Amino acid sequence: xxxxxxxxxxxxxxxxxxxxxxxxxxxxxxxxxxxxxxxxxxxxxxxxxxxxxxxxxxxxxxxxxxxxxxxxxxxxxxxxxxxxxxxxxxxxxxxxxxxxxxxxxxxxxxxxxxxxxxxxxxxxxxxxxxxxxxxxxxxxxxxxxxxxxxxxxxxxxxxxxxxxxxxxxxxxxxxxxxxxxxxxxxxxxxxxxxxxxxxxxxxxxxxxxxxxxxxxxxxxxxxxxxxxxxxxxxxxxxxxxxxxxxxxxxxxxxxxxxxxxxxxxxxxxxxxxxxxxxxxxxxxxxxxxxxxxxxxxxxxxxxxxxxxxxxxxxxxxxxxxxxxxxxxxxxxxxxxxxxxxxxxxxxxxxxxxxxxxxxxxxxxxxxxxxxxxxxxxxxxxxxxxxxxxxxxxxxxxxxxxxxxxxxxxxxxxxxxxxxxxxxxxxxxxxxxxxxxxxxxxxxxxxxxxxxxxxxxxxxxxxxxxxxxxxxxxxxxxxxxxxxxxxxxxxxxxxxxxxxxxxxxxxxxxxxxxxxxxxxxxxxxxxxxxxxxxxxxxxxxxxxxxxxxxxxxxxxxxxxxxxxxxxxxxxxxxxxxxxxxxxx
Amino acid sequence: xxxxxxxxxxxxxxxxxxxxxxxxxxxxxxxxxxxxxxxxxxxxxxxxxxxxxxxxxxxxxxxxxxxxxxxxxxxxxxxxxxxxxxxxxxxxxxxxxxxxxxxxxxxxxxxxxxxxxxxxxxxxxxxxxxxxxxxxxxxxxxxxxxxxxxxxxxxxxxxxxxxxxxxxxxxxxxxxxxxxxxxxxxxxxxxxxxxxxxxxxxxxxxxxxxxxxxxxxxxxxxxxxxxxxxxxxxxxxxxxxxxxxxxxxxxxxxxxxxxxxxxxxxxxxxxxxxxxxxxxxxxxxxxxxxxxxxxxxxxxxxxxxxxxxxxxxxxxxxxxxxxxxxxxxxxxxxxxxxxxxxxxxxxxxxxxxxxxxxxxxxxxxxxxxxxxxxxxxxxxxxxxxxxxxxxxxxxxxxxxxxxxxxxxxxxxxxxxxxxxxxxxxxxxxxxxxxxxxxxxxxxxxxxxxxxxxxxxxxx
Lengths: 583, 459
Hints:
heterodimer; A: 583 residues; Urease, subunit C, domain 1; Lipocalin; B: 459 residues; alpha/beta; six-stranded mixed sheet; 12 helices; 17 strands; 28% helix; globular
């Protein structure tokens, strides 16, 4: 009886679920239908001969014409008022006075700048990390399986790649259309592959197994557990791969009387490296790591591309001697030094701080130093933020890198490095239709990416011209007298704003909370958009730092707003500008 | 025409020089010093001339050709550069604690020439140090003998290329704790340590044999032999058996010191040095007869159970029993004043000046197999020299200048507050400011030891 009862109740609940489902279905019916039709189209109808497109998803044409644009065909070479004709994923023609095909979608390139699509030599965009292998309870940590030890050179990165991943959208938006994907993992995570950031329905694969990826990373708690073990393991794996290759060749050649070579996918993955077909793509950030890579290279004799490089231009001669390729990280160090408050520091600390400032400056000029040393380098996005790319490249340019060199590092250098310059890297007839269209010349402060064409597919972006905030900076520059009502009474003082290369900076004179008189504090985060002015500063009250936020509206010589202090409240604030006496 | 030849010659020479990158070699004439040669007595008011990195002449009223720097050392003491047979300074990693035998790893891979500790060691007169693997494993990694040529960014410039290969072994509590108690694998006891080493050597013999038989038929007509698996660990152990590598073994107790002597005798290994050796005084005759010596602390013990039975007379007892004895630092701090450590043997054991100085010069040189190059002031040896204001065994002694290969790497009058050669672009306070001392024999083993917190010592 009890059983029956539970059955009945189950039935009832089932029914209600069904009801719910059918309701949802009715609502979603139309969408589902659309989806089915779309699937149908994709699966059974060859799009090239499709008479109609029920989904409305398919593009109308694969032919484009970009007209009247400034085209940088390659670093240092440009054509003005040029037209580019693109058809089905290829550049058909570049030049002036070209006939525009009748089926072309025309992109008016007036005021636009066109560059070859950027190439990323080490990207993790859309790559997921394989699941960790389960370690057996009786595993001997001194002799783990290759998989546990992070040694999986046989893995193909494409098995872990998803073109629909949002990271790809972001990197494409930053101008990249070709990337060498690197697998995630530890010491030898697997093999790299070359893809294009094209349409999500395509496979987008340009080449599989383009390099053997290696890192100075080890798995936890097993051999090899440190760089010490890693270096030894590298030597051992490589030598054994060579021996295995020798053995396998002998077996193939002779057969009779030769032991069967034991199958070892990890060692076999080295064969292409041993035969010089692919390089080792080795991530090495600093000088000592680069030297370790060069040491292994010298001992074992493989071709090498060193990625994620953040310093090492001082090793230029060694790098050239080893014929190693260099790929700089698009990530730059944080400017912690200039943020540090050193006013009250000791002389010794100040001197040490100066050295950090100098080291920071040197880190920013690494790209320039590599260029000066005559080493053609490319970039890698791994570990960098896509939103910082242009800011960081601009910083490299401010620190001595030529604009031509920067463009080469994004286009021609990686194309040469990857051996794909025959079909990409420049804007020339016959090359893949990979382009970046910007609103201003590429490395100028106001340049925004308006279009990216990848694999012949067009992606359009919001590119509202950045507000010319600098124009009105003059409104603010000068000396202001302020009054503020706080619980402690009325306080008065002055604020002085100045302009430094288009940016506002300033200082404020405030009552010293810990004594009598006034102290000067530097303003930080000063923003002015032509109307609203905001900034922060900090004061020390009984050893505690208190941050004061000020925000208000500027009209003429009046500034009215509020100042707010965390956990204390918001207080009215007004200031009046002292007239300039420019006679 | 002559000019042209000269230019061509200089191009050829310059080209050759850059091909075989040489470490700097200097010329210097140190005049009128009290020269503590260590091996040939004390020479009053004597000059030492170094040319192209080598001690050319020792004598009175020496003159040098025009360009050679001359230093007036009147009233000062000149001794050979101090040699530390046990250090972990300037190494990025110390322990590969993942296996009881890691003979395949090499400290040469992790030398960090930017470590400001090198400069501090130079300021204490130390010119050569033996960078060892830690003591987590029964057989640790291959060590690196370094000449502290501070200022280079290339680790290889710091390697002492003439030095023979060396390797770290470790007995007792550390390997049993890391592997036995930490990971529940062999060795869990002192017996296990012996078994690990014996098995390792036995395996290496088989390995060597397998390769020898393969190599003997390889390339011959109708050969069907296929190559054995390459094993860097066993290859290194085989090299020890072949006498190509000197063992430096971390040890405390007399019984296990004698154990390893016997193991080595069984396998025909005679290149063996013991380090720490706190109970060495109990087996001094055996150490004298069968080993290349003992490298000890002056007065450091009781930091764990196996190090309680110790005495500050250890160095003196060993020396009087003809053991080649040295005093080492095993510390980034002690390496800065090893002359104090040596001087303690005069308080505890009454060693002579020459005996005490030999503990930090010629004897460690012998233990590292580099005594034909360094360790004393003799004509033909490398110009590694230290000028002291007082006798180095005086408590008032302060090193004034330190030379390696005739090149001055430290001068107390040119000492800057900040001697770092590389600065982080982001770190406002580098660890170097926070901690001067860092003994690291057991550095990096925490990962393998859940109970590490219960053992708060480092050697």
